[in-house]
Amino acid sequence: MTNRKSLLGRSRPADRLSKSDREALERAAAEPAPESPPAKASPAKNTAPPANAGKEASVRKSQLKFHWTAECPACGFKVAGGGNPQPGQRLARCGRCKLNIYLKGK
């Protein structure tokens, strides 16, 4: 098996340009390009707004979703849930210490 890393980052000798080829490329890059005629502005064919711009929509309050996170008071593990919990409601069960977590309140 050959050592592939020996040529890593370097070109192979067969791929290298000769000195005359490099000089020809440098001269071609140094010569200014011929001026082209100014481009004409194309006429606007489609004046309609794009399909994904400026649309509006409404949602009901019952469609909103709330996401919350909290730390377990026993072990500090992060628990998460959704909705709008009420005081005294069970929020989650810790996945690490298996503690049921309730929302403090009245």
Summary of the model, kept short:
Residues 1-62 are annotated as: Disordered. This protein has 106 residues and is of the alpha+beta class. It contains one helix and four strands, in the order αββββ.
Please, could you describe this protein's structure?
- This protein has a domain at 59-74 and 91-105.
- Helices cover 11% and strands 16% of the residues.
- It is built from one helix and four strands.
- It has one helix at residues 19-30, and strands at 67-71, 78-82, 90-93, 100-102.
- β1 and β2 (78-82) form a beta hairpin.
- Residues 1-62 are annotated as: Disordered.
- Residues 30-53 have a biased composition (Low complexity).
- Residues 12-29 have a biased composition (Basic and acidic residues).
Keywords, separated by commas or semicolons:
4 strands, alpha+beta, two-stranded antiparallel ribbon, 1 helix, 11% helix, elongated
